[in-house]
Every structure is written in C-alpha cells, then in structure tokens.
## 1
Amino acid sequence: MDQNLIYKNNSLFLDGLSFKEIYEEFGSPCYIYSEKTILNNLRRYQDSLKDRGLICFSVKANSNTNILKLISDQSAGFDVVSGGELAKVLYVGAQPNKIIFSGVGKSNEELVMAMQNEIKSINIESISELNRINLLSKNGKFKPNISLRINPEVSLDTHPYLETGSKENKFGISLDEVEECVKIIKNSSTLNLVGLAFHIGSGIESFEQLVPALDVTKEVYKDLSKFFDLKIIDIGGGLSHKKSLGEDLIELVISQVLKQAPNNAEIVVEPGKSIIAEAGFLLTRVQYIKKRNKNIVVVDAAMNDMMRVALYGAKHEIKNISNNEKTSNASIIVGPICESSDVFDEDSFIKVNEGDILAIFDVGAYGFSMSSNYNSRLKPSEVLVSDGQAKLIRNRESIEMLINNENIF
Ligand code: LLP
C-alpha cells in the first residue's frame, strides 16, 4: 500500500488523517481526495516535460473548482471540452494561453467563447467545424489559434468505450481529410494553425502503445510545416494510473516522447486519470447485509455516485476502513439503485458488518464528474485532505437543489 495510505491500529489513514474521523465529520457517501497525491503526479509531469511542454489537465476527469484552482496555481494549463469547463477554469484564474479546447461537437457559442478568450488552441475535429470556425472568426474579427486533431487510425487495447484513435471512431480528422483542411486554412485570413493533436484513448500502459499515433502525427507535422509555422504537438492524455505498471510510467513515456518529437515542437499533454484517479476515494457505509450463499452487501453509495463499474466493468479495490481482514466467503457489494448493474464488486472477500465504512479506491478521475441524480439521489459531498486537514470542497446536495430547477404548471 502507498506510503500515504496506511492501517494503524485497525484504522485506515490518508496523509495522516483517519478515514473514520473524516466520515464522522462529513458522513457518506463522500469523495475524499489527497492533495499530496495530485501535486506529486502533477510534478512528475512537469519535471519530465521541463521547459519543452505544457501539461493541460483534462477537466472532464474532475472539475471541482477547488481542485482546478490547486492545479492552476501550479502553473499547469487545462484541456476543456465544453463552455462549462472553459468557464470553470477561467473562474479559478487559469491563463487563457494555457487552455486548449477539444471535442467533436463544439457549438457556435462555445467556439465564440473560446475565440473571445484567446485561448492557446482550439482543437478542430472535422472539416465542418473548420469551415464553421472560419466563418465565425471572420464575422467576429477573431484570429484564433487552432490545431488539427488528427485521427491517427490506430487501435488501443482498452475497453471499447475508451478507445478514440481508430478509423471508425467519431474523433478527429481522418488522414485523407488533411489536404482539404490545408486548403481551407491557407485560404483563410483569420485562422492561425499552430499545431497538431491526437488522443488515442484512456488506459495507455506503455510508450510503445503511443508510438504508431506519434509517428503518424510526426509525418503530418513535417508535411504541414512546409506551409505553416507549426509549434505544438499535443499527444492527448490517456496514461494509465495503475501503480502496478511501475512508479515511473509518466517519466518514461514523456522522456521518450521528447526524444522522438521534432525538436522545435512544444509538447502538450492532457492527462486526467494519471493525475487524479489514485488521489480519490469514495466513502460509503454498509446499510444491510442479506445472507445468501454469496452475501449481498448493500452500501449507501450507488452507480449514480460512481458509474465506472456499471458502465465499463472497471475494477476498483474496496477496503473496510476499520478492518483489513479478509474472509473466504465471497460477497457482492451493491448500491441501492433499482438496477441490477448497480454493483461495485461482484466478488469481494473483505470482512464487513452492517454499519461499517468502506472506501472505494482510485475514483478521483471520472468519479464525481460522471455522477448524476438518478433515482433522485443527492450527489455526494467532496473533501480535500490538505496539510493534515480535511476541507469540505463541495457540499452534499440538498432536496431543494433537486426540486428548484423544475417548474410545475
Ligand atoms: N484528452 C482528450 C481529448 C480526451 O478525450 C480525454 C479523455 C483525455 C485527454 C483524458 O484522458 P485520461 O488521461 O483521463 O485517460 N470516463 C472514462 C474515461 C473517458 C475519457 C474520455 N476522454 C473512464 O472513467 O474511464
């Protein structure tokens, strides 16, 4: 187990604070994040990139404004995919020249907002979007920096929902469309092509998996440099957070990318999971245990709070925060939602009693950010452990919040 995560006298501690105390103060379900882990991972990227690039945290992984501020204060930038995310990072003081905007379906309003704020790059994902931004920039007298997000036509061995770089995916500009894009940009008086981007998916476990996409992009970069003053290669995000792959995956991958990328190119990286997945825990209380061959353990968190298991069959370790013992009787850990997919672990061997508090691990990325109000459940609170203190960074939702946005006629 990680140094910052230890059992002392049968009680699990994070960065010196016991989960039990946090539970007693904030209740459950509740997300808890380790500031220390977020900063360590961020520093890993920054030290590896040195002055050759910029880390743009992928806001979709976790968009709590307190966490975004923490990241912005370390001089990092952001990868946003909606007007809402752009507004949030500007709100916490992010510098526009450290923001990039990706996404296949940007609306007129979102494109205009990005241009008005003169962000570092708007990553264009289709010929239609290119034509649209060309028109909007002329009408609004903007001179936006844009990059072409290339679809490198490579596959990644991950969950099919998490793969984004193969030819059939909706993402990016296919290689046979690049020539048409060049024509449009050459004929435009407003568009400023500054770079190329790709993102092949989530769950990359080695540098080798990135190589085919990097090679394709380098080729296109070389070709387009004949016509444009390109400056940026954006390699997307997607690095796995799994510590079993080795402590230094980030250093390894970035150092190889720097070796192989054109010398004059600034490298932009858009990590989400590898910054914040392992920094987050979801605390949940055992409500009921139904005695069966395989006991059914019903907890108070559900798939609406954390949907990665129900949606991708993801495996998340679960520990009892007051008891590290195992049992030989398997149980299934489920939430209260009226769906059979509301499961956190099909085969758990941890020892639990009713009333115990469990911690679901590695949920800092795409945990809260994908949560919903399904079954009219209140979204959980979020707590940041920082310098030995637990700070409430998002209140638990209230019944008023569920009702107030709706109109009865
Ligand atoms: N850049 C782009 C353009 C992306 O689409 C994504 C993620 C990232 C960066 C960050 O990827 P990361 O480093 O976090 O793997 N909800 C899924 C993950 C979906 C990722 C979507 N795009 C999950 O919980 O596994």
## 2
Amino acid sequence: MLTKAPKGTRDILPDEIYKWYFVEEKFRDICHRFGFNEIRIPVFEHTEIFQRGVGDTTDIVQKEMYTFNDKGGRSITLRPEGTAGVARSYIENGMSSLPQPVKLFYNISVYRYENVQKGRYREFHQFGVELFGAADPAADAEVISLMHLFFTTLGVKNLSLNLNSIGCPDCRAVYNEKLRAVLERKLSKLCATCRERFARNPMRILDCKEESCIREFEEVPVLIDHICVNCSNHFESLKEKLTDMGIPFSVDRGIVRGLDYYTRTVFEFVSKNIGSQGTVCGGGRYDGLIEEFGGKPTPGIGFGLGIERLLLEMDSQNITVPMPEPPDIFIGVIGEKAGKYAEVLALKLRASGITCHKDIIGRSVKAQMKYANKLNARHVVILGDDEIKKGKVELKNMDTGEVREIHIDTLPDRLLKYKQGNNTF
Ligand code: HAM
C-alpha cells in the first residue's frame, strides 16, 4: 500500500509532463482566441450539487461518486465532472450581472469510481468550457468549433464529430411516455436498476450496460424522432452553421449522454484508435441547469475533454510534441572556493533567465562531467582557483565542441543570446 498508488490513479512523471504542458498551453491559447477565460473551482462540492445537477438516477451519481462526510458532518463529493461546479459558481458569484454570454474554461482533475481499463481511470483530467447566457445555435457552433480548432491545431485528425438533439423538457415528457409504454412490457426482463429508473427517469434506462438489458432496447423509440418544432429548428440551424464553417459531422441518433442536465444539442468527438474508451470529448446544451440550482433561467452549453484520452490519441497518431530544452549550462567546480563562487554565479545566471545546473552532492570533477553529459547541457565551464583569479573561464559549446576563453561577467549575456538563436560564440 505504501508504494502503490490507488487503483485507477497514476502519477504524471517529469519525463512526460512536457506533453501535458504542451496541450494545456494550446488549449489555453485557443480558449483565449474565442474569448473564454479560465475559472478554477474546488475539487469537492456539496453532494447535492451533483445529485441535482448531474441527476440522481444517473450512473455517475448512483454508482461512481467519491462521497464522504467531512468532520463537520456535511456530505461532500469529489467532483465527478466540472459543469455542475461551474454553474454553482456562476450563480454564487453573480455572473448573471456580467455582460452575457459568460464564457469560461477549465483544466481540472475529475473523480469517478469506475471499472478501470485503458482510457478509463478513477482520477482523470478534463479540459472543459462552459458558455452561459446564449440560447442561439450560434453558441453551439462556437463551442463545437473551438473544440474542432483545438484538435486541428494539435494535428489530431480523423476524430468523428457525432451530433444529436435530445430536445427540451416539453418534448422529453412526450418521449418519456412513449418510452415507458414500450419498456413497461419488457420490465420483468430488465435489471433492478432499470426497474427503479423506469418510474423516475425512463431515459436513463438506456444507459444500462447489462447485456441482457441492452438486448431489450432494440426497438425502443428514438428521442430525435419526437422533438418539437423549436428544438428541431435549433438543430437544423446548428447543422447549417457547422456545414458553413467546414466542420464535418454525422448525426448519431443514439447519443443520449449519461448526465441529466442536457437539453437539445448533444455531441461527442470519437476516435477509432484508442480502444473501447474512444470518446475523447463530450458535451451539450443544458438550458435548465442554472434554474435547477435556483438561479434565473439561463441557457448554457459546454464540453469536457479527457486529457488522458487526448494524449493516447496523439500517441496513436504519432503526433510528436517538442521536447523540453536542455540546460543552457553546467558549471563544474574544482575545490571549495570555486564551489562557493559557483553558487553565487549560478543564482546570477538563473536570475537572468538561464537554465543552469551544478553539482550539489560533492562529485569528483570527472563525475561532474559525466553528469553534465547525462543532463545534455549545451555549455560547460569548469571553475577553479585560477579561473576565479583571472575572472575568465573556458566556455565549451557541447553541440559543436568549440571552446572559447571568456570573461565570467559576459556569461549571462552570451548564454542568453545563444538561447535566443544569436550564435555569437
Ligand atoms: P463526460 O462525457 O462524462 O461529460 O466526460 C467528458 C470526457 O471526459 C469524456 O469524453 C472522456 O474523454 C473523459 N472521461 C470520462 N470518464 C473518464 C474516465 N473514467 N477516465 C478517463 N477519461 C474519462 C462531462 O463530464 C460533462 N461535464 C461535459 C460537459 C461540459 N457538458 C457540458 N459541459
């Protein structure tokens, strides 16, 4: 237990963190271009936020939440997604009085007690955006095009964008009745969870993963066939906008999404390359969520993208990410006096923006050079009493093997210029 992380969690190690920095930076950049600003929300919320927001008949709430009582006796849940917390924050921080729409993005860890497999973890990470205060299909198109541009910028190809409309509460009520009528006849063949969902939220029955239940769903009515005129016009307008923007999509009549807050547009970006957990990104409209939390009626739309799945997809498409730059210089030292001098010099170099390494565990000179090689340092100097007396060092460029005697004081400037691509060596 002491040397093994809990099932479904993993460390992101220094030799892979550059990939995370890369996609994080790109995501932030694309969000800013679309006018989205970052929000940071707590890792945990009151449990009720998810029961009411995500819905208490969903798999997430019924089976997957990390819920506990804190020492004050409050029921707390580690966030199983980001939308509900962001919606809570929108209301709590009076964002409805800001100019609308309010456009937010986030980069969060997420917690779900799921069966672990490739691309499915218990702690994972999501990029997400939430756009509040715009009911027009233009908002749907903006959010989807943001995601599309993000993938294109990264060079990720061939993800299918699948769209559906699951209507508004009015069309859903009509649909639920039709669904109930069909499912009622099959009820005895369905599992206990399905039977419980039948009365409270029949649509959620379609999320069931039991083989025997899935077999019973073959002839159930499809939601998009029952949406009202307004919802249908909204969906047609979105499809037209995506076509105009040159964003390919297919309509997948089967998408219902496993969270209760969705209304109208739902969508997923799906990969064929990374196994059964191929949904890299999922999202949709949630026009009733803010009202459900007690705010004034405010439409919303957003998506969540699994960062682990994105990185798996990038690997499978052989998309390489620039490796971190090697250190600009390694300062080797001979003797105690040079050691002290090097400590001050290293700080000076670092303060001027240079990546500088030196030995701090008392290696021999030979071992220091071996270490400098392992670090792949671009330049090396060796400081001894003589160098300090003369104020000069021999600076070796490890890329070319060239060596030049220079004044120690000129080191920061030379190294900075070299780093910026002006080779004045
Ligand atoms: P979601 O579909 O539950 O939606 O999750 C979004 C994405 O998170 C998925 O497409 C997938 O890439 C990733 N993901 C989900 N579960 C796991 C897991 N166990 N391990 C690894 N990755 C996973 C939401 O969370 C909504 N809040 C999205 C949204 C935002 N809708 C509107 N706004």
